[in-house]
Design a protein that fits this description.
Layout: H1 19-29, H2 32-45, E1 49-51, E2 67-68, H3 84-88, H4 98-102, H5 125-129, H6 152-163, H7 167-177, H8 190-197, H9 201-211, H10 224-234, H11 240-247, H12 249-253, H13 257-264, H14 268-279, E3 301-305, E4 311-315, E5 323-325, H15 327-338, H16 343-381, H17 383-388, H18 398-405, H19 409-415, E6 420-423, E7 426-429, E8 437-438, E9 447-448, H20 449-461, H21 471-480, H22 487-496, H23 502-517
Length: 518
């Protein structure tokens, strides 16, 4: 077949994602911290963008903006031509209390209009609002009231000079301290440390032995057995029987108490006492020190009981970005750019800045509306959970919410990522409300996987040493409650919750019962 050139027309349709559209999609899945960082970068690049004045500020340094974020309302106060002093002063010039001048009584004369709480729903909103800065007044930063954090390294550095007198020993100790993890365990090899410092192995061993006597007890251990042994030595309780017990911790993890009695050469009473001492030790001696910066979670949506018996849903104003477009500045600079040496380039730059600023405000507004739509639908679907608790959590997927609000599943997925909702039941990530469905034994509506896990946990917590439930027993109990579940699924849920098997639970409960009896 001969090759030839030809010319023809073809008409196709395709979706092209512009950079602005891609950024709009990225804004949906950003947390409020990431969003604030992004907006700060945009404000730095765009001269027409500015942060809106915070509560309590006059905002006089910002000219009249033409566009304000739709969730931030302006209040010019009573009387545009009056000053603040004219408003609060009486005609005679003598200040009067505001209540007397307005002849108003701030008591609620309609007590029946008070919000009605949903039955059996704990009120956590008031606790959150009672935090400093939560009442809308002067804001506080809780970090300002927190004492300085002491790390494990700082705590050990204060003790080393009193323990090791020579500079050489302190250098070895400093090198070993640098190799500690957050739990206080040493991960470096003695031979490697000695080679790096040009010291003898015995010298590093002596320094390590001295460091293992520091506070907290058990620090600088290389294994869990060594950590427990250090603590027992400091308590003068590291006898031969305890040495055998510490050397066979794998049997303790399996709750094989018969083998432990034989290895340690003790009776049941002595073994119970030894297990009580082991439980009193700290397997992670360094965990009590600050290892990183802990950040509090701010809810993006707040849900509270409404007057009509429903739920009032609102966006948290503390997480909403507040930016404005300075149209006055744009008009002023546009007039001056006409007289500049390069008027076309200046006008193009200003037009691009204005376009990007308008796009950002519209994108932020659309982001807030989308979050509100998704949160409203989640609250509607999970009303029973908010009233009665986790046992009534309904199975829910992204498609159900997307179809209800006429959006794509990917949009709902981005909105629910790293977003939190404060409810009367507590603070939950939006992803928490999406769980798979488990068939009902009675043929009715399915059950949420999270609710089923909660039931399994509740059944196991009610066990007694004489009546420990096996996985088959849990299956029968769940079926009685209307949940159809296979035994292997129960085992999978139990292992995911770090709950041991029935054999291990029986041994542990009997051991605890023996400890309590002693």
């Amino acid at each position: 077949m001969a090759l030839s050139a030809s010319l023809f027309l073809r008409q196709t349709q395709s979706l092209v994602m512009t950079p602005q559209l891609m950024q709009s999609i990225q804004l949906l899945q950003m947390t409020h911290f990431e969003l604030n960082q992004f907006i700060a970068q945009e404000v730095e690049k765009n001269p027409l963008l500015d942060f809106a004045p915070a509560d309590g500020e006059t905002g006089s340094d910002v000219p009249d903006p033409a566009e304000i974020h739709p969730h931030q309302h302006r209040d010019d106060g009573p009387g545009s031509g009056e000053t603040q002093a004219d408003w609060f002063d009486s005609p005679s010039g003598t200040p009067e209390p505001l209540g007397e001048s307005l002849d108003a009584d701030f008591e609620n004369v309609f007590p029946d209009d008070a919000p009605q709480r949903r039955p059996d729903a704990p009120e956590l909103i008031s606790q959150w609002k009672s935090m400093p800065g939560g009442d809308g007044g002067e804001s506080f930063d809780l970090d300002d009231f927190v004492a300085g954090d002491v790390t494990l390294f700082d705590h050990l550095a204060q003790q080393i000079p009193f323990l090791l007198p020579t500079a050489r020993e302190r250098l070895i100790a400093r090198h070993l301290t640098d190799q500690l993890d957050d739990n206080g365990y040493l991960h470096g090899e003695i031979a490697e440390v000695a080679e790096q410092l040009g010291a003898a192995d015995a010298e590093v061993e002596d320094a390590l032995a001295a460091l293992q006597t520091l506070d907290p007890p058990g620090v600088f251990a290389r294994t869990l057995s060594e950590c427990l042994a250090i603590q027992l030595r400091q308590k003068d309780r590291f006898d031969p029987a305890m040495q055998a017990l510490v050397a066979h911790l794998e049997l303790l993890a399996k709750r094989d108490f018969a083998a432990l009695r034989k290895i340690c050469g003790v009776d049941d009473e002595d073994l119970v006492d030894m297990l009580a001492e082991i439980r009193a030790l700290n397997p992670r001696p360094g965990s009590g020190f600050q290892s990183g910066v802990s950040e509090s979670i701010l809810p993006d949506i707040v849900v509270r009981a409404a007057n009509d018996g429903g739920w009032a849903i609102e966006l948290n104003p503390d997480t909403l970005p507040k930016v404005l477009v300075n149209q006055t500045y744009f008009q002023t600079v546009s007039k001056r750019s006409v007289k500049s040496a390069r008027p076309d380039e200046d006008q193009n730059f200003l037009s691009e800045c204005l376009q990007n600023a308008n796009w950002l405000t519209r994108s932020l507004d659309q982001r807030a509306k989308t979050i509100m739509k998704v949160a409203t639908e989640i609250v509607r679907q999970q009303d029973a959970f908010l009233v009665n608790g986790v046992d009534h959590l309904r199975p829910l997927n992204l498609k159900t919410v997307a179809d209800a609000i006429k959006m794509h599943e990917s949009t709902v997925s981005r909105v629910t990522s790293n977003k939190y909702m404060l409810t009367p039941r507590g603070l939950f990530e939006l992803k928490y409300f999406f769980t798979v469905s488990i068939n009902s034994a009675e043929g009715g509506d399915g059950h949420s996987a999270e609710a089923v896990r909660h039931r399994i946990r509740a059944l196991i917590e009610k066990e007694t040493p004489e009546a420990v439930l096996s996985d088959d027993d849990i299956v029968v109990s769940l079926k009685t409650g209307g949940v159809e579940l296979a035994r292997r699924t129960v085992a999978k849920y139990r292992e995911a919750m770090n709950i041991p098997s029935s054999v291990q639970r029986r041994r542990e409960k009997r051991a605890r019962a023996g400890i309590a009896a002693c």
